[in-house]
Amino acid sequence: MYNVVELIIGGKNMKKFFQEFKEFALRGNVMDLAVGVIIGGAFQAIVNSLVKDIISPLIGLFAKTDFNDLVINVLGVNIKYGSFITNVINFIIMAFIIFMLIKGLNKLAEIGKKKNDLPEEPTTKICPYCLSEIPINATKCAHCTSELSE
């Protein structure tokens, strides 16, 4: 019977398998993704706290109770619509912040592109005698052999 690891790596050498995994795991994209997920999780905790500890109590002032505690009982089943609305508020705040972040990153990318989109200096010129295109530093036309003045 085959070993599970042998099935996964297809009979390859274990050292080569771990080398391929190391190259995969240490690529820039994977590391960037890992950092993004960690920061996103920490940021989500901040947004959750903002909604739960500040926004929900302020909204709860109108309901005269904690907003998360708003419940409707239907046929003996508690439906926690206050908690659901809190999660919707969390989502809207997170989506708005991510939208603003992506919009800002796109602006930065456009600024970088505009610098790179500067017109290139010409590398060719037109011979005044035969109107052929020749290198800009040419002193004699390759087509009509006319002497060119600088």
From TrEMBL:
Its main location: membrane. The chain crosses the membrane at residues 24-47, 84-105. InterPro entries: Mechanosensitive_channel_CS, MS_channel, MSC/AndL, MscL_channel. It holds the Pfam family MscL. GO terms for molecular function: mechanosensitive monoatomic ion channel activity. It comes from the Bacteria. Keywords: Cell membrane, Ion channel, Ion transport, Membrane, Transmembrane, Transmembrane helix, Transport. Homopentamer. Belongs to the MscL family. This is Large-conductance mechanosensitive channel.
